[in-house]
Amino acid sequence: MALLGFLGKDKKESLNKGLEKTKENIFQKLSRAVAGKSKVDDEVLDNLEEVLVSSDVGVKTTLNIIKRVEARVAKDKYLNTSELNVILKEEIVALLEKNQTDSENDFSSTLKNIPFVIMVVGVNGAGKTTTIAKLAYQFKTSGKKVLIGAADTFRAAAIEQLQIWADRVGVPLVKQQMGSDPASVAYDTLKSAVSGEIDVVIIDTAGRLHNKINLMTELSKIKSVMEKVIPEAPNEVLLVLDGSTGQNAFEQARQFTAATNVTAIAITKLDGTAKGGVVIGISDQFKIPVKYIGIGEKLEDLLIFNRFDFVDSLFSER
């Protein structure tokens, strides 16, 4: 199976660098798992299971991967341990294929709706604000007119931080005072987008999780108000997860997917962690496409996720 991605050379190098900690972690554990072994046997498979679970792939997804590798071992009768990396790459890519909508689209691709409305959800601290800024930057750089709506009105800091980022990127921000009705901000933002012939609208929302019912009610209200201006809005509900939290990211995903109809996921902070395996587990378990990954602090360090490039970066020899 050819593992063909679509990232250009520079972005692929950035991805390799961003995933370096996870890659080193996995390779160190893999070398211990196959030490002294010439073929993939039950002991190697047990060790491999431990490697994947401890790399934050998650138990269910790990078992799925092990089943696939076991099937390959049974089919090919004899597999050398030196082939394990290749097998892992192929089987993980195949596993992700079921849940991942691969496309060669980039930020300059034609949008299916204009304005294209992205509602961003996620806990505070997950990298939601910086992800919004990076999205705005990438879309603007590709020639699109972008507008941001500051509908997280429960924290003064959220509005202030978003304003700083909007100014840095050079895109307008629609905001009201702290404590204003978030749905009102979303409504104003979409009205401005329609009159201003905006291509992409990015709506920030509150990251509270302490009361799931309140969160669900608030998100539903924002969506219903937006639909009054643009019937298809939002075109995308993007959940931002902090990849460095490992298994806690699974819990965040569980709570937000229960609260609203999440259609895409962005996983941030992968450059600062050895827990990048969480991307594989979340894609597999939630059956929601991972659309973006954050691999650094710079505005251009938000990449469109591609399973081929991601798996290649994690499991290819240096």
Give an overview of the whole structure.
The protein is an alpha/beta fold and 318 residues long. It is 50% helix and 12% strand. It is built from 12 helices and 8 strands. Strands 3-2-4-1-5-6-7-8 form an 8-stranded mixed sheet, with helices on both faces. Strand 5 (236-242), helix 10 and strand 6 (264-268) form a beta-alpha-beta unit. The protein starts with 8 loop residues before the first helix and ends with a helix. The relative contact order is 0.18. The mean pLDDT is 87.
Short description:
The chain has helices spanning 9-18, 20-33, 42-54, 59-76, 84-97, 128-141, 156-169, 182-195, 212-229, 247-259, 278-286, 307-315; strands at residues 116-121, 146-150, 173-174, 200-204, 236-242, 264-268, 290-294, 302-304. It has 318 residues and is α/β, with parallel strands linked by helices.
Order of helices and strands: HHHHHEHEHEHEHEHEHEEH
What best-fitting shape do the alpha-carbon axes yield? elongated
Q: Average pLDDT value?
A: 87
Number of separate helices: 12
The parts where pLDDT drops under 50 for at least 5 residues are: none
Output the radius of gyration: 21 Å
Cα distance spanning the termini: 20 Å
* Major beta sheet, strand line-up: 3-2-4-1-5-6-7-8
Number of strands: 8
Which range best describes the helical content: under 10%, 10-25%, 25-40%, 40-55%, 55-70% or over 70%?
Answer: 40-55%
Largest sheet: 8 strands, mixed
Work out the strand percent.
5-15%
Secondary structure class reads alpha/beta
